[in-house]
Amino acid sequence: GSMGRHYVRRLAEHTPVRAMARSDRDVEDLSQIPNVTGVKADVTDLDSMRRATENVGIVFHTVANMSLTDWGTNNKVNVGGTENLAKAAEENGIRHLHLVSSVGVYGGQETDQHIKEDAPHNASNAYGVTKSRQESIVFDSSNRFEASAVRPANVIGPEIDVWTHAILNVL
Hints:
42% of the residues lie in helices and 14% in strands. It has 6 helices and 5 strands. The relative contact order is 0.14. The model has no long low-confidence stretch (mean pLDDT 90).
């Protein structure tokens, strides 16, 4: 997705990167970036995660289904995919798994104060709940590899059309 492509481009400025994508076209596009090798893989397929993480030291996990209401797909991709990735990471001796999570884990907390990172998760929609579960999977696995996460808010910019289209539709 868009966030993953941004990570890939920035990381490739400093180190060789193996980037996974589900479609042949996306793999081809990623492989055009200097210092990047595109690999066809799908987080919902454990064997493809095992292949994609072979001989890799650090994994940046940016995969997520972003629906607020599709519990089935979000559970399959966000939760099941993260379980597969964590299992493959452990089996392949990954040193560090970095998750791109979301402020959605906090839900719609009513406060006039800033929410701190140690605030309780209070999500109620399919996206926030499954992103919270992703974090649990990653951090529960941290005895097998180092783990970290960031929780960005709504991201707007080039190639990130989810919010851009919503804004344009209002205008």
